[in-house]
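Quick start: load a record and inspect it. Here is Lcl C-terminal domain-containing protein:
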Amino acid sequence: MKTSIFLTLVFLSGLVMSAQICNPNIVNNWKNDRYEYNNNGTVTDTLTKLMWKRCPEGTRGIKCSKGRAPEVTWKRALRVAEKRKFAGYKDWRLPNIKELASLVKRSCYNPSINKRLFPNMPAGFFWASSPSFRDEQHKAFQLNFSNGVERERIRHDKTSKVLLVRLGQ
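Running the structure step on this input writes:
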């Protein structure tokens, strides 16, 4: 009896810990009406006019729950973007750090992105195309959608996930 109650509490606490947490005192500029869901696996941000591939590379499905998002080097991420054909478009690219950061929902974490339009965003860092301005170690920027944190990493041997963008028309 005690064991089953304990296991139930552990399970329920895991559900609570994995839920998106938002601060109601911070203005939400990332409401659903800011985005257009295009019914082809893409989302257009009406503020920035950028079209995003809804699922990170390696994942697919309505809720982006099929497959897994592999981590690749920065150079490989650029090649993946260059060769990607999706939803009738072939001009996909790796976003720069400002574009990637434009998706960060600053009022929330776990994840810090619009969860309805970008479901199942995996934890971890995503590459930006932006090389570091302090490029003596050949670094590029990354962003973590779990908490909105940006960092610089060595781009030739470090790996990260990929989310693609294009200029929407």
